[in-house]
Amino acid sequence: MRFVLVSFFSLFFALSIGAQPRADEYIDVVFLRGGNSVEGTLIEYAYGKSVTLVTEGGDTETFAWKDIRRVNFRLDKRRLEEIRDDIREELAEIEAEEEQATEAPEVINRKFLHQVTGFIALGQNPSGFRGRNVTTIGGGVAYHLYRQTKVLNFGVGVDVTMMSHFRRENILALTGQIEYPLSRKAHRITPFLRAEVGPAIPFGTPEADEEISQRNVSALIHPSVGIHFAPSGGKTGGVTVDLGYRFMDASFTITNSSLDVIERTVNYRRLCLRGGLRF
Prior knowledge:
Layout: H1 2-19, E1 26-32, E2 37-46, E3 50-55, E4 60-64, E5 68-76, H2 77-103, E6 112-126, E7 133-148, E8 153-164, E9 169-181, E10 189-203, E11 210-215, E12 218-229, E13 238-256, E14 261-278
Antiparallel strand pairs: 1-2, 1-5, 2-3, 3-4, 6-7, 6-14, 7-8, 8-9, 9-10, 10-12, 11-13, 12-13, 13-14
């Protein structure tokens, strides 16, 4: 019986000793933020301040807390190279992200944008010769302060229009714009529907010896369909082109050099091709 007990405890002790890894298979490792690591025996660990260890070569080194990425106590030497590889991959990913951030263009997201537009208008006016109509060429420029949302775009601004280059009839309007993009996704090219409305008033001198003595405010209506060309790199703004029709009934009183008073009402109907810059 005694022999059996002695044999059992001897076998248990031998297995216990064999299961314990040797001390030289473990090491303390300090991994630095620059990607390097130092192995040795840790002799001082001041959390938040510094770490001191004796290297395998016998040197004593102290590292500031801000320079340390991680500290491993009694690390299995067989896992040391695996951890180094993981840290190298992590540093490579960080460097790649920093490089992409450096190369990526600066994207400025503002609540409001500026929009400047210009257009050419074509229409028909009676010439007084055998009752025929002649093509009238006009044009204009406008400025709007624009706000882009996820569903609609809104703008408010000033519109100056030369309705007829023959009669020198001009219109000044305070208008608002509503724009509906036909695509919800961000594309370089997006079609849209736009409506521009607002009060307008005529100005200028129709003829050299005539003067507009009285002006009446009327409504300007301009529906259109167009395309928005967005800049690359996800930047805001872009270029717009649209085709539409401009309606306005203007009434004003003209006094000529003979003091004759002429009441005029003009029904403007103009096909407009417009281009704009949004920034």
